[in-house]
Amino acid sequence: MTETEDLRGLSPFRPVPSLVPVIEVRNLSKRYGGTVAVDGLTFTVRPGQVTGFLGPNGAGKSTTMRMMLDLERPSGGQVLINGSRYRLLPGPLRQVGALLEAGAVHPGRSAYHHLLWLAQSNRIPTARVREVLELVGLADVARKRVKGFSLGMGQRLGIAAALLGDPPVLLFDEPVNGLDPEGVRWIRNLMKGLAAEGRTVFVSSHLMSEMALTAERLIVIGRGRLLADTTVGGFIEAYAHSYVRIRTPEPERMRDALTAAGIGVRQAADGALETHGAQAPEIGELAAAHGLTVHEVSTQSATLEEAFMRLTEDTVEYRAVGGQR
Ligand SMILES: Nc1ncnc2c1ncn2[C@@H]1O[C@H](COP(=O)(O)OP(=O)(O)OP(=O)(O)O)[C@@H](O)[C@H]1O
């Protein structure tokens, strides 16, 4: 079939209407032999915002997403998308778009023909293929064979496929892996834009810092279990504690003044003092009251990456030498 040919007898393309596009995960579990990959997960993903799905390597993110799409059978529990199991959804590509892994494309095919094949097998009009190629910035290379594509181009093609049916629910598994900063920013903005249109956008990552820029809500898992289901703001408040850093030529006197005021203090490797028990203005006033010279009193925020590491450190899977799990 050529680009100009079209599917005949199709009504104009319209996405399947869905009142509330939600993903409901209920007591979901998956065992592989002795390995418990997913362990009793329950959470809901709602529309209008990007929900980040976070966890260290091996936490069970991909397994959960595969179960959402009925690519794996749960050992227990279930996932409902728009109130139904994925495989029972009518016109699934028009209801759920997914980017699971890059490279699942016939390498000899062009981007255009890959998408055309998908469109035809899902009764989506050919005109939509051009639209999504434009949308992801691949229109100029649409006729090139996929085997010559860079990682970033492959990711864009996967996203084009996910968007083909204009679905209200989108799942992306590690979409920014291996991309350059421009590609990362593009995907971030695309996801935010899709959520702003009222879609349900669920995106996995093991990078807290990236998710903090992209998502409004977070589902955090470790060893298959739910660790947090919260907003990004709530996560920062709960886990990313700040402290005050003090540099002074009189550290001993400063330490004594802080201790006498009931403020815990410890010395950092570079000789600065760090305290978690007080705000910077209080420390400045304490120093002034004791006639102490200070060169620095600054509030330091713990990074989200540190907070995430603390939350998940007990749950990081053991890796044998050589990277084997
Ligand atoms: N097909 C499989 N057979 C056996 N074990 C599996 C299979 N798929 C996943 N696992 C195991 O299930 C656990 C969860 O893996 P999963 O790939 O879901 O984690 P993840 O959070 O997506 O990790 P990553 O960030 O590394 O992709 C791991 O212990 C993994 O080795």
From TrEMBL:
Residues 23-248 form the ABC transporter domain. Pfam families: ABC_tran (PF00005). This is ABC-2 type transport system ATP-binding protein. It comes from Micromonospora echinaurantiaca. The keyword ATP-binding applies. InterPro entries: AAA+_ATPase (IPR003593), ABC_transporter-like_ATP-bd (IPR003439), P-loop_NTPase (IPR027417). Belongs to the ABC transporter superfamily. The lineage of its organism: Bacteria, Bacillati, Actinomycetota, Actinomycetes, Micromonosporales. Keywords: ATP-binding, Nucleotide-binding, Transport.
